[in-house]
From TrEMBL:
Stored Pfam families: AAA_31, Wzz
GO molecular function: ATP binding; identical protein binding; non-membrane spanning protein tyrosine kinase activity
Protein name per Swiss-Prot or TrEMBL: non-specific protein-tyrosine kinase
EC supergroup of this enzyme: transferase
Lineage: Bacteria, Pseudomonadati, Bacteroidota, Cytophagia, Cytophagales
Similarity field: Belongs to the CpsD/CapB family.
Length: 790
């Protein structure tokens, strides 16, 4: 089938006509869409957006100025990871900590006095500190959570409590855990305000509030929220992001319907986050002080004992001075003893930290404990790396499960780092043992030298050395304790609230009536338009003259207007009708085409049955006869004769009897009520109509009829079913191909197009039957010609 390029072009006028002719569907759809938009606008809770900003510090512990002044930590700070801090800030534990400081457990709602609520509870508003009652919970008892509990105010002193729920959770606020559920719950009870109510599932007291000028409401209800549901609500609406890729200023965003609640939540969350940071830093400082205090307690007794021993020895032995040589030896011995003691202290300190590392105690989760005296940069960096990995792990745990590959990787890195720290501490202990052994050997040599000194002098020097060593060690620890105390006293968090929470704009972010109504209108108009386009594209029937011009090159002769199916002889019965005018136009077009030629035989066919081929044959013959021409109409469709529906015919004789029995022409031609119009019905139905039409007598019939009539019109069978048309085609001077508006399938024109393109058929023209002027824009102007038609 040949199709022109124009078939794929968009005909704007055609689509506008289709849309206009179905205007009522657009109106109905628009009304429904606008109504749905109205319900959405009224029933949707208003959600507002809130923002605040928080500054992250760049130091691990302590006050920055104190560290610069005292140099308590001799390591380079690596700063913080913004992603990890975001994870901690949005973690469930941090949100729980903030929610415990707020009174969000009970949420209050009001079903407004709106006509939509007569259908269902569609228009519901949440209240915060503005409800006509207040719920006081007994958190030591079991409560029903996450279900609506209806409150109907009966008067100023009484109310009705009602619960209708399925699978209602029972919640223990002491452990923050669900301990079961009730499959089906139906509860209604009348109580007084201020009167406690308690059963196995509920324990509360409703107090009448002092709120005045309350808006009208049909009913109220409240929901007791579990801590987990509150965390999910806040986590779902919370968004945290840095203001810039490299920035340490975080923007906290949240959405909610109650401004006071969301502002309080964001401010409390930031305050708890900052307080936790300072708390962690103070705890690290306290651990350092506790370690130094424990060492000072041990040295205090040793110092006192050494002083007493030295004093007693001097008093008992009356020794005041020691010679210079002895003093030099003993001074050197004292220095070595001090060095050995320092090494022993370091060793003890290393072993203490190593024990904590192996047992997984607090120091493994904190920063490098350099205040105690570790001077190894490698070990200090390993402690910093361990702290950073632990912080990163905490951030991932807020969103990841234990099976997460990244979490497993971090845990492996933590284990490796702990192993490296343990190995370094073990090396330091071994190094201390070697140094202690070396110093001890040197001490033994000096002691051997001093052995020759007088016993009293040697004993005195021993006591002096011991006392001086303990005294120096005690002074050293006192100095370090003072430094640690100053660092703890000046401890401050580097995290700071920059902007407290506030609402962004004044309009809700989810409900914008003008935009919603516009969108609803667009959707309301798009749905019927889409359906019309879909149905038009699915409909493969011929819709108008443009379809024919796109599907075939066969010339177009005219259209037959739509009319009543009961009016078979429309041309004869109502000569002022649109159908009569249609056939009149076709007759004139035929006469114009046949003006210079001696055309006699006109054949009409179609693709399939039901397209109005016989109707067009009868009415076109009638119109030509009414113009004064003598016309004979032949019914050649001997498989399905239909002339009896149009004329009173004798079915005993006709075309079949003429061709088979040799009857004279006068016996098969029958008169009609219309002057100048005769018909030849098919007669008795033969066994083989195709062979019958091929006999030479058919050619004789056409030739004889040409002598008596001006026009011969042959009503042929449809070419889509049988082959008789191809036999009769050689007798015809003009071929009229009938298609029916919105009935004939476009693919049915393939066969006639092949005949035309192969030039096997001559003088063929298209007629479109049953065209409703009101349903096509091509002839839409004719619907206004009713004054010209009767």
């Amino acid at each position: 089938m040949r199709r022109n390029k124009q078939e794929h072009e968009i005909d704007i006028k055609s689509w506008l006509f289709k849309f206009r002719s179905n205007w009522y569907w657009f109106a109905l759809s628009a009304v429904i869409a606008l109504a749905a938009g109205y319900v959405y606008v009224k029933s949707s809770p208003r959600v507002f957006e809130f923002k605040s900003t928080l500054l992250l510090g760049d130091q691990q512990t302590g006050s920055k100025k104190a560290q610069e002044l005292l140099e308590v930590l001799d390591v380079q700070s690596r700063g913080i990871k913004v992603e990890d801090e975001i994870g901690l800030l949005s973690s469930a534990e941090m949100i729980k900590q903030a929610l415990r400081k707020l009174d969000f457990t009970v949420a209050y709602y009001r079903v407004t006095d709106h006509w939509l609520n007569n259908i269902s509870d569609l228009v519901v508003e949440e209240e915060y500190k503005s409800a006509p009652y207040e719920v006081e919970l007994d958190t030591s008892s079991i409560q029903l959570v996450d279900i609506p509990i209806t409150v109907r105010l009966l008067d100023k002193n009484t109310y009705e409590l009602e619960i209708e729920a399925q699978n209602a959770p029972r919640y223990d606020f002491r452990t923050n855990a669900v301990i079961g559920s009730i499959p089906q719950l139906s509860f209604k009870k009348t109580l007084k305000f201020g009167e406690p109510y308690k059963d196995e599932n509920l324990s509360l007291t409703l107090e009448r509030s002092d709120v005045e000028n309350l808006p009208p409401a049909t009913k109220y209800y409240f929901v007791i929220n579990s801590l987990e549901s509150l965390v999910k609500q806040q986590q779902g609406s919370l968004g945290i992001a840095p203001i810039d890729r490299e920035a340490r200023v975080l923007v906290l965003g949240s959405k909610g319907s109650i401004p006071d609640k969301q502002v309080a939540f964001l401010n409390t969350l930031m305050a708890e986050y900052v307080a936790n940071d300072l708390k962690d830093k103070n705890e690290n400082g306290m651990k350092t002080l506790e370690f130094i205090d424990s060492q000072l307690g041990t040295l205090s007794d040793s110092l006192r004992q050494s002083k007493n021993a030295l004093s007693s020895f001097r008093s008992n032995n009356r020794i005041a001075n020691i010679n210079v040589q002895s003093n030099l030896n003993y001074e050197k011995l004292s220095q070595l003893e001090a060095e050995r003691a320092r090494l022993n202290t370091d060793k003890t300190y290393y072993e203490n930290i190593l024990d904590q590392i192996r047992n997984g105690n607090g120091i493994a989760q904190s920063v490098s404990p350099t205040v105690g005296g570790i001077q190894s940069p490698i070990l200090n960096n390993l402690f910093l790396q361990l702290a950073e990995l632990n912080q990163k792990k905490a951030g991932y745990r807020t969103t990841a499960t234990e099976e997460n590959p990244m979490l497993r990787k971090i845990e492996g890195e933590i284990a490796n780092t702990r192993g490296a720290i343990e190995a370094n501490l073990q090396n330091l202990v071994e190094s201390a043992n070697i140094s202690i052994t070396n110093v001890s050997e040197r001490i033994n040599k000096i002691e051997a030298t001093l052995a020759s000194l007088p016993e009293n002098e040697r004993r005195l020097m021993d006591l002096q050395s011991q006392s001086e060593f303990i005294d120096k060690k005690y002074d050293f620890l006192l100095e370090k304790r003072a430094e640690a105390s100053i660092a703890l006293a000046t401890n401050a968090t580097d995290k700071k609230i920059v902007d407290k929470a506030s609402m962004v704009g004044t309009a809700p972010v989810n409900v914008k009536p003008k935009m919603i109504y516009l969108l609803a209108l667009i959707i309301g108009l798009a749905i019927p338009a889409g359906v019309i386009v879909l149905l038009s594209n699915v409909d493969n029937t011929i819709q108008g003259k443009n379809d024919l011009s796109n599907l075939t090159n066969i010339p177009f002769l005219g259209v037959v207007a739509h009319g009543s199916k009961s009016d078979k002889l429309a041309v004869l019965n109502n000569q002022r009708s649109a159908i009569a005018e249609s056939f009149r136009s076709i007759r004139i077009n035929l006469q114009y085409l046949m003006a210079n030629q001696d055309f006699k035989v006109i054949g009409l066919t179609s693709s399939i049955s039901g397209e109005g081929k016989t109707f067009c044959s009868v009415n076109l013959s009638s119109e030509i006869a009414m113009s004064g021409k003598r016309v004979v109409l032949i019914e050649s469709d001997m498989r399905k004769p239909t002339f009896s529906k149009y004329f009173p015919v004798a079915e005993s004789v006709g075309l079949s009897s003429y061709l088979t029995q040799g009857l004279p022409l006068g016996e098969v031609v029958q008169k009609t009520p219309l002057e100048n119009l005769d018909i030849i019905p098919c007669g008795p139905i033969p066994n083989n109509a195709l062979h019958l039409l091929e006999v030479p007598r058919m050619q004789q019939l056409i030739a004889e009829l040409k002598e008596h009539y001006d026009y011969i019109v042959i009503d042929t069978p449809p070419i889509g079913y049988v082959s008789e048309y191809f036999v009769l085609m050689r007798h015809m001077d003009v071929n009229l191909y009938v298609v029916k508006h919105k009935y004939t399938n476009k693919d049915m024109l393939a066969e006639i197009n092949e005949l035309y393109n192969a030039k096997r058929i001559k003088n063929i023209y298209m007629i479109m039957n049953d065209l409703n002027y009101n349903k096509t824009y091509e002839y839409g102007y004719k619907k206004n010609a009713k004054y010209y038609y009767a």
